[in-house]
Design brief:
The complex is a heterodimer of chains A (about 120) and B (about 650).
Chain A lengths: L1 H21 L14 H21 L1 H4 L1 E3 L2 E4 L9 H6 L2 H6 L7 H13 L4 E2 L4
Antiparallel strand pairs in A: 1-2, 2-3
Chain B lengths: L2 H22 L7 H27 L5 H28 L1 H8 L4 E4 L10 E4 L3 H8 L6 H17 L3 H4 L6 H16 L13 H22 L7 H16 L9 H22 L40 H15 L12 H4 L48 H10 L8 H9 L2 H10 L11 H13 L7 H8 L5 H10 L26 E2 L31 E2 L21 H9 L2 H4 L18 H12 L32
Antiparallel strand pairs in B: 1-2, 3-4
Helix pairs in contact in B: 2-3, 2-6, 2-9, 3-5, 3-8, 3-9, 4-6, 5-6, 8-11, 9-10, 10-11, 12-16, 12-17, 14-17, 19-22, 20-22
């Protein structure tokens, strides 16, 4: 009987493992339901790029810690307008000039925020 | 309580409340003198423009006298405008085009707009009105519209959003920087002053007006004032301009810039640092606050030479990437047939261009390409690349050439595969991946970024002309004379702007395109068939327009023009002296170059060429690599270093 319980627990753990490993990333984004699956895969690549670029260039100042969890805040579309981001903010003029983040990269970050699920916890550095 | 007592009580309360209010509201900083000078000048300008409008309405424009009355009033209003130019150009550049747009139609291709489609802006105002009066038939309504729309635009400068900027010191030093850069690049050249006899008189009145602006600023902003040294040097500049001849062709532009304008620029840059000035305007987008000379290569930022590696600052890492970039530059693996490399057309030991052919051969090695190979040296000082402004980044340009079936005929995936098949490249790029965490694998972006990093290091060299400007190094007097002509009578500087002498003018955020009427051959039988910028932006004004190139290193980058039709600098000078294509008898409906002859003497032509030679940069080119990385595919290991044609 002990053996059977042991095997059952073991199987349960094994069964759950892939779910734990593969679960993140794909769940980060809110896609409209009518987008084709292949388009989602292609978009995800771009979104991941945006997410990493956010982590490199923006997270240090913008991430928030709430109840021990690190949260990527949400921005409105207006706040994400790339020209405005760079010029209208005194800090940004020095922290993210064209020589540090290109406009194309800025677009990838904007894209990430467009499809990111609201207030996403950070799971990796 | 009687009625009168009650009245007194109410009155007293009101007075008390008023007094309280005036104390409790924080008084705005006393910027009175400075702001009132601005408002007064703006009012005067508006008044004189309204007067001009009335004169146009009531004057007979068919008579010589009538035209003269209008011209005189335009001159008066222009003097007002010049006194305000310091502010207007900086605080609201879009409205400014309505007041002083030098072209009837302009297609914007500025740094922000390069990511969008170019859009059309119609100019109006005094410069166009003055030009319009010289036409054979003057239509009153069109003239009235030019003035009306200028008056309307002047009104926008009274808006709160603009006057509120003037309450702080920040705008002042940035506006002053633009003013100084324009003193070096356009105010003395007639860029927006069609009547050449007025250029120096307008300059003088402008310098005097700005002097008053300076004093009112120092009065109102004592904590962030201009230093005594600055004001005294500025005063000397004023005296210098007054003592110089009033004819812009005899004015000593060289000394004016070297001894006054550039040192003033340096001091203003120091104020920007010292007073913690920050910008909220796109006008300052590409200017570098740390730069200390107009003739230093770090004045403005045009292109990202590091591409995908832009955040790498470690010098050793950059050297490693650059080393791989050099190998790639010489490696024919980047082409479809493994025979052609970047170096095939952009000869790395000869200013990165091809001086032998007007236009290089296509991939088939039989037919010629339609355009001349441009030098890659100083390419970073452009916001738009290629002669038609097709590309916005060096890396996009690189990818385009590699995959263009007429040029290198490569395929993106295959090229990456061939490169990674070489152990040396493979190892290097794998180690570079740590610099680009946003990329999960090695892509063509890594390859073209290494290449642009390599050739861009040749941008950091200076010419004897720069040394003369920066360090007062001795220079042939003929160079000075040539430069002074370049800035005046020869009308070169109205398109080739100081300091890069390309089509990027202060505040260095856009690239200009011009229609010159370049012929198909030196016999001037017909206009070159190439539609130029029109292919990218199909607007009538853009037909046969090309991006203005730099004249740095021009002696070594022949042949000239988009189709390489000219072989010598003398031919070029002759072409411009005649008035471009139209002057040479071709029909060009939209030529932007004046078709009148410049009437240059042979001595003047010679001096111009001497000046152009003084812009040859002392570049240390390095030798080709001795070998290329070994590929796993043995058939590729006999490929030629630098490829063949």
């Amino acid at each position: 009987m002990k053996y059977i319980t042991g095997i059952l627990v073991f199987l349960l753990v094994i069964g759950c493992l892939p779910a734990c490993v593969t679960q993140p990333k794909t769940q980060f984004y809110d896609f409209p339901s009518d987008i084709a699956e292949e388009a989602k895969t292609a978009n995800r690549k771009m979104l991941e790029k945006g997410r990493v670029l956010y982590n490199i260039n923006c997270a240090k100042c913008h991430n928030k810690k709430i109840n021990g969890r690190i949260i990527i805040p949400d921005f409105t579309q207006d706040q994400l307008d790339s020209y405005i981001i760079r010029i209208k903010n005194e800090v940004h003029i020095n922290s993210i000039p064209e020589t540090r983040v290109t406009t194309q990269e800025m677009e990838a970050i904007q894209y990430f925020f467009t499809y990111k699920k609201p207030a996403l916890p950070v799971t990796e550095k | 309580m009687t009625f009168s007592m009650k009245k007194n009580y109410i009155l007293f309360s009101i007075v008390f409340i008023c007094a309280l209010c005036s104390f409790s509201f924080k008084r705005p900083k006393d910027t009175g003198l400075y702001i009132s000078l601005y408002s007064q000048k703006l009012k005067d300008f508006k008044k004189n423009q309204t007067l001009l409008l009335d004169l146009v309405k009531h004057t007979d424009l068919r008579t010589h006298d009538g035209i003269k009355i209008i011209k005189d009033q335009i001159a008066i209003a222009r003097t007002n405008l010049k006194g305000l130019d310091f502010w207007l150009r900086y605080v609201e550049p879009v409205a400014y085009k309505k007041i002083n747009g030098p072209l009837p139609v302009e297609w914007e291709t500025e740094v922000f707009e390069k990511f969008e489609k170019p859009y059309k802006r119609e100019g109006s105002g005094l410069t166009l009105a003055a030009l319009y009066l010289d036409e054979k038939q003057v239509d009153k309504d069109s003239l009235l519209n030019l003035v009306r729309s200028s008056i309307f635009a002047t009104g926008t400068y009274m808006a709160d959003s603009i006057t509120s900027q003037l309450q702080l010191h920040h705008h002042f030093f940035l506006a002053n920087r633009l003013f100084i850069l324009n003193l070096a690049a356009i105010y003395t050249t007639g860029f927006e002053c069609p009547d050449t006899s007025r250029i120096i008189p307008e300059l003088r009145s402008m310098l005097a007006d700005v002097s008053k602006i300076y004093y009112s600023f120092n009065e109102s902003f004592a904590k962030t004032s201009l230093s005594e040294n600055y004001l005294s040097l500025y005063n000397s500049a004023l005296v210098f301009a007054d003592r110089q001849p009033g004819d812009y062709s005899r004015f000593d532009h060289f000394t004016f810039i070297r001894d006054y304008i550039n040192p003033l620029f340096k001091m203003n840059q120091q104020f920007i640092k010292q007073y913690g000035v920050f910008t909220k305007s796109y006008v300052d987008y590409s200017l570098n606050n740390s730069n200390t000379s107009i003739f230093s290569k770090d004045l403005y930022f045009g292109q990202n030479e590091k591409g995908i590696f832009l955040r790498v600052t470690d010098q050793n890492a950059l050297l490693e990437i650059e080393k791989i970039g050099k190998l790639l530059f010489y490696d024919p693996l980047l082409s479809g047939n493994n025979q052609r490399s970047c170096n095939s057309c952009h000869k790395a030991t000869a200013y990165f261009t091809d001086t032998l052919l007007s236009t290089s051969f296509q991939f088939d090695r039989k037919n010629p390409l339609s355009r001349n190979t441009p030098s890659l040296v100083n390419a970073t000082f452009n916001h738009l690349l290629m002669l038609d402004g097709k590309h916005i980044s060096l890396q996009n340009q690189g990818k385009d050439v590699i995959t263009n079936p007429l040029e290198m005929g490569g395929n993106e995936k295959e090229v990456v595969q061939k490169i990674l098949n070489c152990n040396e490249y493979n190892k290097a790029f794998k180690s570079f991946l740590k610099y680009t965490p946003q990329e999960t694998e090695i892509t063509i972006e890594h390859i073209v970024s290494a290449i642009s990093l390599y050739y861009s290091k040749f941008n950091n060299y200076y010419a004897p002309f720069d040394d003369a400007m920066n360090n007062k190094k001795e220079i042939d007097p003929a160079v000075k004379q040539g430069f002074n002509l370049f800035m005046s009578k020869a009308q070169c500087a109205t398109c080739h702007f100081v300091p890069q002498f390309n089509g990027v003018k202060p505040p260095y955020i856009g690239s200009e395109f011009e229609v010159l009427g370049v012929p198909e051959d030196t016999g001037y039988k017909k206009l070159s068939f190439d539609s130029g910028r029109y292919g990218i932006n199909p607007a009538a004004e853009m037909l046969n327009a090309f991006r203005t190139g730099s004249i740095r290193n021009t002696e070594f980058t022949k042949p000239y023009m988009h189709n390489g039709v000219f072989n010598t600098l003398e031919q070029i000078v002759d072409f411009y002296n005649a008035g471009g294509g139209v002057g040479k008898g071709l029909t060009v409906n939209n030529q932007t170059l004046s078709s009148d002859s410049l009437r240059l003497t042979s001595n003047e032509k010679m001096n111009l060429v001497v000046f152009m030679r003084s812009l040859n940069e002392n570049i240390n080119f390095d030798a080709a690599p001795l070998q290329l990385p070994v590929s796993k595919d043995k058939t590729l290991n006999s490929r030629k270093i630098g490829g063949e044609y």
